[in-house]
Design a protein that fits this description.
Helix content is 65%, strand content 0%. The protein is an all-alpha fold and 292 residues long.
């Protein structure tokens, strides 16, 4: 009788040793959870900074919020401040969904985050494929269609003006399309028409000049590109300013550094795929934990 009781007691005591560890076990990996959280926290802060910078720039440039200048959707992207706000909002809300979904273990936010990442990744693949299959059409869009608004609105938007000046100075180019410096004839201040009363008639911005600095004062000579459109010989013009368009200059730079460009694209793709993998892994872990 005692032996039987001993065996019964021994039989019931064994499961008790494993009940508590089994109850404390969780399928959710803290490494996956907090890796996804801190990854998105960084981009959440970046998105917030972009929105703040864009909003500050917009209010500085348009104190009365004059939206009459925006005639179509393309105008929102030509104006740098609004482009920053839109980009910042996309990054901010995507990373916010990832942060909250990871921290609160919320399946709804995690699924939304995964969906947005997937759509972004598919969009990048589609654009890359279109650019690879139809390079002439993409080149036409960039050089002819996209070049009109930035040139025409050069003096209307301070941010756009600064951006064009930085690009032309650093890439040693002038204008956007294959027309090069002649693109600036589309601008009402720089065109060579007889009815143009502007003192900048037939000129180009100082950022087109090969030597924009004044030797006497060491300051930028804003008049260094005056009257260059009146010179008939491109060879003579090329002595004073850069004559090729910026699309050609940027394309040439990319072609010379194709390995670096491919490496950057690969890193971006890997980062996005890693984020999707972490989000999907955490979703599976949460679902497995809930099923217990």
């Amino acid at each position: 009788m005692c032996a039987r009781r001993g065996r019964v007691h021994h039989h019931h005591s064994r499961p008790r040793l494993y009940i508590r560890p089994h109850e404390d076990y969780t399928f959710i990996s803290p490494c996956v959870k907090y890796s996804l959280f801190f990854f998105n926290l960084v981009f959440w802060l970046i998105g917030g900074c972009l929105m703040g910078l864009g909003a500050w720039s917009f209010l500085e440039e348009y104190p009365e919020t004059d939206l009459k200048k925006f005639q179509n959707i393309a105008d929102f992207f030509v104006h740098i401040s609004l482009a920053l706000i839109i980009l910042g909002m996309i990054v901010f809300w995507m990373s916010f969904a990832g942060c909250l979904g990871a921290l609160r273990e919320n399946l709804c936010f995690l699924k939304l985050y995964s969906l947005m990442l997937l759509l972004l990744f598919i969009g990048e693949i589609v654009l890359s494929t279109v650019a690879f299959i139809f390079p002439n059409n993409v080149s036409y869009f960039l050089k002819d269609i996209l070049s009109k608004d930035p040139i025409m609105k050069y003096r209307d938007d301070t941010n756009l003006q600064n951006l064009i000046d930085v690009v032309q100075t650093n890439f040693k180019c002038c204008g956007i399309s294959d027309q090069g410096y002649k693109d600036w004839s589309r601008n009402i201040y720089f065109n060579c028409s007889d009815s143009n009363p502007s003192p900048e008639r037939c000129a180009v911005p100082f950022s087109c000049c090969r030597n924009p600095m004044s030797l006497d004062s060491g300051l930028i000579n804003s008049m260094c590109g005056y009257s260059v459109q009146n010179i008939s010989s491109v060879v003579q013009v090329n002595k004073f300013i850069f004559t090729r368009g910026c699309i050609a200059a940027v394309t040439e730079l990319f072609e010379r550094n194709m390995n670096l460009v491919a490496g950057v694209c690969l890193v971006c793709a890997v980062v996005q795929l890693l984020a999707m993998f972490l989000a999907r892994s955490l979703q599976g872990q949460i679902m497995a934990q809930q099923s217990r």
